[in-house]
Amino acid sequence: LRTEFFHKSLNVFTAALRAWFDIEEWRRSDRKYKWTLAELAKVPIKWYGGTDLSKLYDLTAACLFGHYNGVDILIPHCWFPQAAAVAKANEDGIPLFGWKDDGWLDMCNDAVLNHSDVVRWYKAKRKAGFQFRRIGHDRKFCREYYLGMKKAHFPIRDQPQLFTVKSEGFRYLEASAKRGTLYYLHAEPMEYCVQNVKAMEKADDMIMYEKISPSQRIDVFDAAVFAACSYLKDMEQVQQTGWFDDAPAKGDSDE
User: Fold this and answer.
1) Spatial CB neighbours of 141, under 8 Å, sequence gap ≥ 6
2) What distance in Å separates the CA atoms of residue 184 and residue 50, rounded to the nearest whole number?
3) Which residues neighbour 10 within 8 Å (Cβ) at sequence distance 6 or greater?
């Protein structure tokens, strides 16, 4: 019991003291909305994507971002290799199998995630009715995923994960949660990762963030930040050039 107390109870308490976000603030905002995936697929929203593929042998995450009637909507999903799932769930206290039962996580049979699983998820969302405007990708993480998304005709754009860029997406989600205009479909993986975020303010209120401890994960939140950055980048370019909503994104390198 002493070991369990230090590993779980004390770690949770310590993490809460060091966490940047007040998770109850996020929950209050999320509880205000009740849209289902099926309902959101029918709404004329331009969706933006972000994917964290930095470690394909660990938790991998993707997130869709959409803005509708003043509400910022996040739709997360994650993947984890089956071979390491039991050990990591016990050692690091990640409720992977609960997420799988709730439909927020898929498990692959290999020791490393196949990038095509992520591409198939995006294709399934498109088939369900989600219209994609832009999907950001850092080229240094899994070139095969990038090529697979291009082959599937997704509007994927090069978007380096620099903290100076991600700070804007971080601040946007932070403000949306405080306003009560953030909805993430009550997804437990999002709440888990948000609680594990530790951040530091740099010059000009820029934010550099990381996970509180090595045994925790923030991948789902990171994917949400990445998706929000795609939205903000596209919104800025639309205002500067006066494009129509259905015009293809410009000014980005596809190479």
Assistant:
1) 52, 53, 54
2) 14
3) none
Report yes or no: 196 and 211 within 8 Å, Cβ to Cβ: yes
Enter the pTM of the model: 0.85
Tracing tokens 């294709």 back to the chain, one arrives at 123
Tell me the C-alpha distance between 247 and 187, whole Å. Answer: 32
Q: Please tell me the distance from the alpha carbon of residue 196 to that of residue 33, in angstroms, as a whole number.
A: 24
Task: List residues bridging with 72 in a β-sheet.
Answer: 67, 182
> Cα–Cα distances in Å, from 214 out to 15, 41, 245?
12, 36, 42
* Cα 182 to Cα 70: distance, rounded to the nearest angstrom: 9
Amino acid in position 46: K
Do residues 79 and 55 make contact, with C-beta atoms less than 8 angstroms apart?
no
Question: Residue 127 corresponds to which tokens in the numbers above?
Answer: 């088939």
156-158 vs 131-137, strand pairing mode:
parallel
Q: 10-residue block means of pLDDT along the chain (255 residues)? A: 47 58 96 97 96 82 96 96 82 88 92 89 97 87 87 89 87 97 97 94 84 90 95 80 50 44
Buried b (16+ CB within 10 A) or exposed e, 80-101: bbeebbeebbeebebebeebbe
